[in-house]
Amino acid sequence: MRPLTSKDRPCPSRKRRGAKASKGSHGRLRRPGALVHRELALKGAAGLAGLLVLASVIGLIGSGWAGRKLDASAESLGRATAAFGLSVDEVFVEGRMRTSPERLLAAVGVARGDPIFGFDPQAAKSRIEALTWVRQVTVERRLPSVIYLRVEERHPIALWQVEGQMAVIDETGAVIAGARPEDYAGLTLVVGPDAPTHAAGLLRLLDGEPELRRRVVAAVRVGGRRWNLRFHGGTDVRLPETGAAEAWAQFARIERQHGVLQRDVDSIDLRLPDRLVVRTAPEEDPPVESDDGKNT
User: Fold this and answer.
1) pTM (two decimals)
2) 110, 209, 240, 286: which could form a disulfide with 252 (CB 3.0–4.6 Å)?
3) Contact indicator for 187, 195 with CB cutoff of 8 Å
């Protein structure tokens, strides 16, 4: 007899009508519909159980239980790592010039012996960058025991006069809150609503002629387009809207050759590219002798 294959299976024998089920049968046959209903009922029960579990988890999170457990685990981990020497022993700082060391350490928020893995660099960064002189900072954990800070401070570049008040501004044009103008009286004064935005560019231009730059005491922004410079002695120099760097270099050459600022000059206009317009200070009227011989 040849072996059975997938195509050669014996046909099930038909049961006689009315025959009883054999011993090995599983009882009465169920209709397919009954099986489907049972499967849906089981799936519904499982889904309901899942929803109940999810609601319980959400309730625990909302009550703060999960957060407290995580915090407790983090504290336990910190204590365990500190026991192996992973604790803060030093805060190393680079770039600090004007920021108070006491305020900086307070913003770091760590003490010697604290678990180094319990220290949050991002939270410390936010606190440090809220300090007056700090523009940005890099905060790192350097295992096993060092907190490293690289501080980039703000640099005062000018005094800004607005509505009769004085403020110190940095290279971005932002006011340095808490900086006292009287401590920076040697900085150039800039005037005008949009002067802080353009102050850094103007000062870079003036630095092209350092000898002349040192004699500038103030710069007034005119119409949001150009600058007038005030020199020691009261002379005003009017820079053009375009080509200001070339006009400034040309004026420096003329000043070196002729010493225009040493003369009794009221203003110098550099706005015309091919000429320099000088206006002298008005002469005072000579005293008039009265009939009684007294000068008036």
Assistant:
1) 0.65
2) 209
3) no
Nearest-5° Cα angle at 213, 209 to 216: 150
pLDDT of residue 291: 52
Residue type, 21: A
DSSP 179-230: --GGGGTTSEEEESTTHHHHHHHHHHHHTTSHHHHTTEEEEEEETTTEEEEE
Which residue ranges make up each domain of the chain?
A: 84-153, 156-280
Q: What does the pLDDT read at residue 56?
A: 53
pLDDT score at 100: 95
What's the topology of domain 156-280? Answer: Rossmann fold (3.40.50)
Query: By three-state DSSP, how is residue 83 classified?
Result: helix
For domain 84-153, is the CATH number 3.40.50.10470? no
Query: What does the pLDDT read at residue 282?
Result: 74
d(CA 246, CA 224) in angstroms, rounded, equals 20
